[in-house]
Design a protein that fits this description.
376 residues, cobalamin, two-stranded parallel ribbon, four-stranded antiparallel β-sheet, alpha+beta, 16 helices, tRNA processing, 10% strand, 10 strands
Length: 376
């Protein structure tokens, strides 16, 4: 619904929206228009090169992803919002990555699923706006629908897209979720974020699978986050040894980023680690049956991959773990799993331990492939 709004009203409303956003737990709110032409070519090139892998949804909507006004007709502005998630009470990430008997879960997935929480907060924000301006056109997105959320956040001044292709802020680093309200209100525009990566290539150099193929260019097909979450099939054998103990996502490029050393950290209690997933042995997680998996991942983003991919990912990590009797026994317990996908990855892991035993010459480290990264 379109209304006549004067500039002064919109300026005051924008400040009010920022205030409400902070009250609802967002650490920043920005406003931009719908012109993403500068990002559209980057998206089309990425798709042409097949770097989206099996994420067919990235290509399905044509230019609607880079043209918000085509996706939701009548959209004039996007309200872009950021919410910090780093679980401050969780075990220090590098100490987990460097212990190949433990399971590493990406920091964003240790707490409650952000989709529902942020969507509720965005709805509360829309309700507050409506109470002031009356009925207006809007649609909320949280990592849903064909939306270039990082491009919109950069345009709305919430930060810049770093060399690792994540959004970065000088104050807050990159440990945050993004959400959007597409709206027909002619809100004032914020200046776009400017890039501050400089000559730093830390994220490119540390990536375990060399998925950051050039500054600002990610090949999702090599990315551990893609391989363990989006990919539902077999993980390419050449990449398995590089994955180390990362069973759900990967944070190396964020952990090594200098901007995250000084980042303010989040206080949203919902994102603190649950069920001890920040400090747990691979063999313990591999023992979960499907009922246990569903119970322990209730309200978590992890549940979306399903039990089969969960076991697939852990089998790879156990293949990279030290050759202990407990690790071998755990793998053998799933040798005859009903899923061909699980059986294939278990067989690979066992073969890796057998090859290591054959080549054993006094060392006791097993097939650990040296993928654990130093924190400096």
């Amino acid at each position: 619904m379109q209304h006549a709004h004067n500039t002064q009203d919109m300026q005051a409303l924008a400040e009010q929206i920022r205030q409400w956003g902070r009250e609802l737990g967002f650490d920043a709110v920005g406003f931009c228009d719908t012109d993403l032409s500068a990002h559209e070519q980057h998206l089309l090139n990425w798709l042409d090169q097949g770097r989206h892998g099996d994420m067919q949804y990235m290509a399905r909507h044509g230019t609607k992803r880079s043209r918000p006004e085509e996706l939701i007709p009548g959209t004039l502005r996007i309200i872009s919002l950021r919410m910090q998630y780093f679980p401050t009470a969780a075990r220090e990430p590098w100490s987990v990555i460097e212990d190949s008997e433990l399971a590493f879960v990406s920091r964003y997935a240790l707490g409650r699923d952000y989709h529902k929480l942020m969507r509720q907060r965005l709805q509360q924000l829309a309700d507050r706006i409506e109470a002031v301006v009356g009925p207006f056109g809007y649609r909320a997105f949280v990592d849903s629908g064909p939306v270039l959320e990082k491009a919109l956040a950069e345009k709305a001044g919430l930060g810049w897209i770093g060399k690792h292709t994540n959004l970065l802020s000088r104050e807050w680093g990159s440990w945050f979720f993004l959400g959007e309200l597409f709206t027909d209100l002619p809100l004032p525009l914020d200046p776009a974020g400017t890039e501050h990566c400089g000559t730093c290539n830390a994220c490119i150099e540390i990536c375990p699978t060399q998925a950051i193929v050039a500054p600002f260019e990610l090949d999702a097909r090599r990315c551990i986050s893609y391989l363990t979450i989006e990919n539902r099939g077999s993980i390419p054998e050449a990449l398995r040894p590089m994955m180390g103990n990362r069973i759900y996502g990967c944070d190396d490029c964020q952990l090594v980023c200098p901007w995250n050393r000084r980042a303010k950290l989040g206080v949203e209690p919902s994102f603190q680690a649950r069920h001890g997933l920040d400090d747990v042995a691979l063999i313990d997680l591999f023992a979960w049956d499907e009922a246990t998996f569903l119970k322990r991942t209730e309200g978590s983003a992890i549940r979306r991959i399903g039990h089969e991919c969960w076991l697939r990912n852990i089998a790879v990590a156990l293949g990279n773990a030290p050759s202990t009797p407990a690790v071998i026994a755990a793998l053998r317990s799933r040798q005859d799993h009903p899923s061909e996908l699980v059986r294939e990855h278990v067989a690979w892991a066992l073969a890796r331990h057998e090859a290591s035993a054959d080549a054993h010459s006094g060392a006791s480290s097993g097939p650990d492939s040296g993928t654990a990264q130093a924190s400096g």
